[in-house]
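quick q for whoever's on today - can somebody do inverse folding on this one?? i tried earlier but teh output was garbage lol. tokens:
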């Protein structure tokens, strides 16, 4: 049977050619992150990012895929001990309607924080069509047309009902000519900004940095001559939540929990630091979140951080939709986070030093596990 061709590999100008990347993990983490960040992965449409990840990691071991689109790489006896997981998908919108004068309407299919929509008016967006991508800008009507009560309080002003997505069309027929259809994904443009030192900014950058760390770790692990008992997982559809679940549970993580048999579960995730500025900070190293069922895995990582002189921050609790499915099985589950400022906004900021420290910690931990 012929393998189905992958569609929708959309990139921004910062895309780094695959040919410039060494499959042996020699490329620095920043360049790797840039190449992964250039690929859009709306929730339910992660196939292009998954394909890029598969190409960047040596094909040693066995790749598997579940029915949601998550990809799994088990190395030799990888069912036995640690599974390292990271989400691939990102929150966005879909085209929900068209106006006669050429504008588009938006809706969302996954939940988001109530304030999330307020950050995007006035920013460039990208529509992922069946065959290409279409640039757009998200806008609000002029404030003077709103009732004074809304202008004074801004209540209900920044809502999807008031947004218009403009692609430069003047009538509905122009929209059709551009190939835009109802239900096409719409995402904020991945705008990579270089800030002072090792700080970098961009929408969704923290989550994608975790993804890059796991790719680099897998690259270095698969070329090792020693055996490995690790399983690497890039999860799809983590932004969808299982209905009626309490606490809130990602269906992508739920599916992975049913597939994986590993005793130890290490989840890489972006952790906001704004609310915890007194004791968490950018540049302070990755954040170790010890949940209710943390045990030997957390201890091993702390020992490795101390042995390798790797900075490590600590947090007692972090509300994550990725951990509950594994905690129900009484496994040893921890979250290792990259600190993120202004999470969920176009100005999301990370420090590459934290990502590099996380990669070093993971590589050291897995290398020690490989020792006889």
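ok took a stab at it. sequence:
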């Amino acid at each position: 049977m012929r393998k189905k061709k992958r569609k929708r590999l959309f990139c921004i100008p910062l895309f780094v050619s695959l040919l410039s990347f060494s499959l042996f993990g020699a490329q620095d983490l920043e360049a790797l992150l840039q190449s992964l960040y250039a690929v859009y992965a709306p929730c339910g449409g992660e196939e292009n990012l998954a394909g890029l990840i598969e190409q960047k990691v040596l094909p040693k071991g066995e790749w598997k895929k579940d029915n949601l689109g998550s990809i799994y790489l088990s190395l030799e006896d990888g069912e036995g001990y640690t599974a390292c997981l990271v989400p691939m998908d990102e929150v966005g919108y879909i085209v929900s309607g068209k106006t006669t004068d050429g504008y588009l309407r938006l809706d969302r299919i996954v939940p988001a924080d109530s304030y999330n929509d307020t950050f995007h008016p006035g920013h460039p967006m990208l529509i992922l069509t069946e065959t290409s991508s279409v640039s757009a800008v998200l806008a609000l009507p002029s404030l003077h047309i709103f009732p004074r009560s809304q202008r004074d309080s801004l209540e209900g002003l920044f809502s999807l009902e008031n947004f218009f997505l403009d692609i430069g069309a003047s009538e509905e027929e122009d929209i059709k000519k551009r190939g835009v259809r109802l239900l096409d994904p719409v995402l904020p443009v991945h705008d990579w900004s270089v800030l002072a030192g090792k700080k970098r900014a961009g929408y969704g950058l923290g989550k994608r940095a975790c993804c890059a760390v796991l790719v680099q770790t897998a690259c270095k692990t698969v070329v090792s001559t020693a055996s490995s008992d690790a399983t690497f997982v890039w999860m799809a559809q983590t932004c969808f939540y299982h209905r009626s679940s309490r606490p809130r549970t990602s269906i992508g993580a739920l599916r992975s929990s049913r597939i994986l048999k590993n005793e130890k579960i290490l989840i890489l995730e972006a952790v906001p630091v704004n609310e915890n500025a007194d004791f968490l900070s950018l540049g302070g190293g990755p954040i170790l979140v010890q949940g209710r069922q943390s045990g030997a895995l957390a201890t091993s990582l702390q020992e490795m951080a101390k042995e390798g002189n790797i900075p490590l921050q600590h947090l007692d609790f972090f509300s994550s939709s990725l951990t509950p499915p594994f905690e129900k099985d009484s496994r040893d589950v921890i979250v290792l986070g990259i600190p993120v400022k202004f999470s969920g906004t176009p100005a999301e900021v990370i420090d590459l030093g934290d990502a590099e420290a996380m990669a070093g910690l993971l590589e050291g931990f897995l290398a020690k596990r490989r020792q006889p």
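fwiw Residues 25 and 219 are 5 Å apart (CA to CA). also Residues 18-90+204-370 form a domain with the Aminopeptidase fold (CATH 3.40.630.10). so keep that in mind when u check it
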